[in-house]
Amino acid sequence: KPALPKDKVAHILRDETARGFWDPHIVSVFLDILENDPGRLEIPSNAVRSRDSDLFHTLNGEVIDWADRR
Q1: Nearest-angstrom CA–CA distance, 8 and 4
Q2: How far is CA 13 from CA 17, 59, 62, in A?
Q3: Distance from the CA of 45 to the CA of which of 28, 39, 55, 56 falls in 20 to 30 A?
Q4: Distance of alpha carbon 16 from alpha carbon 8, whole angstroms
Q5: What confidence tens digit (pLDDT) does each residue in 4-16 have?
């Protein structure tokens, strides 16, 4: 499933925040970064890989073989 465009994400977050689903301050800070400095949200190329990051990158439905991760 492809990622949503940033403007669609911002619209959804603003709508859900107005309906009380999210903390307005946190969403405001996140949207400011998303819209004005999106590079801050990218994972650095020299980041250490971990089970957490592997899980994040495979949430597209693939099965993770935890026995192979050490």
Answers
A1: 6
A2: 6, 21, 27
A3: 28
A4: 12
A5: 888 999 999 999 9
Quote the mean pLDDT of the chain: 79
Task: Indicate whether this model's pTM tops 0.70.
Answer: no
Q: What is the spatial distance between Cα 59 and Cα 55, in angstroms, rounded to a whole number? A: 6
Indicate the Cα dihedral angle 32, 38, 40, 45, nearest 10°.
170
CA-angle at 26, arms to 24 and 28, nearest 5°: 65
Amino acid (1-letter code) at residue 13: L
Give the residue among 53, 54, 9, 14 at the shortest CA–CA distance from 34.
9
Q: Which two tokens stand for residue 54?
A: 């592997």
